[in-house]
Amino acid sequence: AVASKPKIDRFITRFSRVYTPIVVFVAIAVAVLPPLLFSADWDKCIYTALTFLVISCPCALVISVPLSFFAGIGAASKEGILFKGGTVMEALSNTKAAVLDKTGTLTEGKFKVRSIVKTAGKSEDEILALAAAAEIYSTHPIAQSIVTCANEKGLSLPKLTSMQEIAGHGVKAKQNGEDIYVGNEKLLALSGISVPSLPENKEVGTDVYVAKGTTLLGRITISDAIKSDTIEGIKDLKALDITPVMLTGDNEKSAKAIGIENIHAGLLPEDKLSEMQKVRKEIGSVLFVGDGINDAPVLAGADVGAAMGSGADAAIEAADVVFLNSNALAISKAVRVARKVIKTAWENVAFALIVKIAVMIMGLLGYANMWVAVFADTGVTILCILYAVRLLRVKF
Q1: Is-catalytic flag, 250?
Q2: Are the C-beta atoms of 210 and 171 separated by less than 8 Å?
Q3: What is the C-alpha separation between 305 and 295, in angstroms, rounded?
Q4: Low-confidence residues in the chain, pLDDT < 70
């Protein structure tokens, strides 16, 4: 917390460094100059100076601002939202766009094989078994769903060699010296394999193609269930005047099922960072939410990076905010918390300064006694503390 003070907290610290010596010199001047220059009563001038000093003590400012952030962090943690410092809240409150990864962020991240279309000589089970053999060592959720489906069917997997995972494309392997390809259309294009006209896919999902040599054997369609609160979470972001944008490696058809208009589909991992930077130029400061290892560079490069608690450790480490319950609604809730905290901090600053300035003027004119001064110092401090601590009980 000390190493990452928000701007408002740093402002109060700088303000106090200038403010404190000024009020001390003013108090000395009030105590000494009138008696020396105008033969005023020493006792009255010293009492007025002491009253002025008590009024001007900046306790309310110095205590209430960081306390607002601590209370906000505490309130957010009860909702399963972990903020890694006050600067994160400040940046999040100014966010204009929420750039969202699809898999594992807006969807459950639990893929299932929905359909298999064969194109050349092989049965559906043979295509599935060949794909599972190629994907057996991959940690990608889509790859794991293919292997799981093959295991559930009790299929015997063929022996493949020279397996190579190509990021953002798929897997290349060999069977009896012949190349096997399991991946997206980009992998087939890279390998010079043309995709023949296939029956229209009734399932909305990710297409995985299986090819041997230069021949396409079939297409496996895999889909992921949308989280129950995703649609509501997207609407909530729009209500906060934040533009939702989706970055995904999936095809555009499956991406559109989420309900976000601004979609960048079919992206490679290295493309996400450049696309996020384009969004920042077009819309403004960016919150990026992801969960995978390949999201870590984008999380680090965003104005605010947020990770789902169910995601990869690398993503959680790189993120500024972690949604421990992995709910899509937590995204908009975090923005609300951040905005409420910043608003509370500035309201405390404004209240403390207005009361202090008013009572200081009254004190210098001789209308405020020590009891009023004590209220302007300790009383205002307690009121500001109570106003900040109420964040712990606010429902977001």
Answers
A1: no
A2: no
A3: 10
A4: 1-9, 201-203, 251, 254
